[in-house]
Amino acid sequence: MKTEKQKMLAGEFYYAGDAEIQADQAAARDWMRRYNGGQDISLEAYGELLREGFGEVGTNCVVRPPFHCDYGYNIRLGAGVFLNFNCVILDVVEVEIGDMTQIGPGVQILTADHPRDPALRAQGLEFGRPVRIGRNVWIGGGALIMPGVTIGDNALVGAGSVVTRDVPAGVTVAGNPARPLAGRRAD
């Protein structure tokens, strides 16, 4: 029988109030207090904190505080990734961000989802769908990346967009819901 954490990581229905899951969230809150409170530490120290808190961190990554996440260990950053101030990643399952991707301030990347069936919601069940963001993507400030979305290499996401569907490589999308802009390719 799977633990609630194993179910969570597999993208299955799980109970978020489980003690092991709550302990992991508490550890993430402790890490965020240290990361977000260290304005006077060196870039090297920030890099060490990123490697401590995230599942994988490539070289030369910058995540400007404040930053918020659920767990941290499900976040994988490629080399040269940049996240501006006030980004939020709800990482109940894996979030992959490819090399040289730039993410504007206030962007939210959400993997956490909830059952559509009200009886299941009433049981406190949740599930997650992974988000994958390719290489050399630019996501404008305030965009929302919804659960299960894949954004292809070299794509552009306009500021304030709500991305509910996959974005093909090299395509520029904008709006709510985000839609391709006619005649605009990023590559």
Notes on the structure:
- The protein has helices at about 5-10, 20-35, 45-55, 120, and strands at about 15, 55, 60-65, 65-70, 75, 80-85, 85-90, 95, 100-105, 110, 110-115, 125-130, 130-135, 140, 145, 150, 155, 160-165, 170-175, 180-185.
- β19 and β20 (about 180-185) form a beta hairpin.
- The longest helix is centred in the first third of the chain and has 18 residues, at about 20-35.
- By secondary structure, it is of the alpha/beta class.
- The strands form four sheets. The chain has a seven-stranded mixed β-sheet. Strands 2-5-8-13-16 form a five-stranded parallel β-sheet, covered by helices on one side.
- It has one domain (about 5-185): UDP N-Acetylglucosamine Acyltransferase, domain 1, CATH 2.160.10.10.
- This is Nodulation protein L.
- Acetyltransferase implicated in the O-acetylation of Nod factors.
- GO terms for molecular function: acetyltransferase activity; O-acyltransferase activity.
- It comes from Pseudoduganella lutea.
What brief labels describe this structure?
Trimer_LpxA-like_sf; O-acyltransferase activity; 187 residues; seven-stranded mixed β-sheet; acetyltransferase activity; acyltransferase; Hexapep; UDP N-Acetylglucosamine Acyltransferase, domain 1; five-stranded parallel β-sheet; alpha/beta; 4 helices
